[in-house]
């Protein structure tokens, strides 16, 4: 029933504002993505609240969203697999890796520089469900993602070994790794399975 109302609503928008089919595809994709992300964030917020790490989770989400919106990455086909992947990603970045993996401060600049370079060379990696972006838009996304990583990296190096710096560091590292996985999946023709 809700699907019928949604389709009628979108048809009314298209006819009222004379949107093209491509613009409607972008609008539909955006609405689905935003609603999915809101639900996922609420569920994960409740879990991290129970675990006693809600502020750290919010910091991680803020950093991840700003990078991922510009660099892209792996995209799952179903909501539940996306939720489980994000849960694993955030547990690793916010709780597990900062607590159990100590990276020497002198090595962090090298790792962060490598993450910036990888992002510059590979981003953006968009979902196949997303309407294609123009080459100029892709350059803007790549440059924004790279610039944000540079700013976050400087902040991490200034904050040194504080818990916030460690969370931000692991968010960047994990995001870069999954960006590489997304590129490999696309080149290997397996992106449809991951999408």
Topology (elements, then pairings):
Blueprint: H1 2-17, H2 21-51, H3 54-71, H4 79-100, H5 108-122, H6 135-159, H7 163-187, H8 191-194
Describe it.
There is one protein chain. With 195 residues, the protein is mainly alpha-helical. 80% of the residues lie in helices and 0% in strands. The chain is globular. The model is unreliable at 191-195 (pLDDT under 50).
Can I get a quick summary?
This protein is mainly alpha-helical and 195 residues long. It is built from 8 helices and no strands.
Mean pLDDT: 88
User: Could you say which structural class the secondary elements and strand pairing correspond to?
Assistant: mainly alpha
Which strand-content bin applies to the residues? under 5%
Described by strand count, sense and barrel closure, the largest sheet is: none
Uncertain residue ranges: 191-195
Shape: globular
Radius of gyration: 18 Å
Order of helices and strands: HHHHHHHH
In angstroms, what separates the terminal alpha carbons?
26 Å
Q: Give helix % range.
A: over 70%
Number of helical segments? 8
Key terms for this structure?
0% strand; disordered C terminus
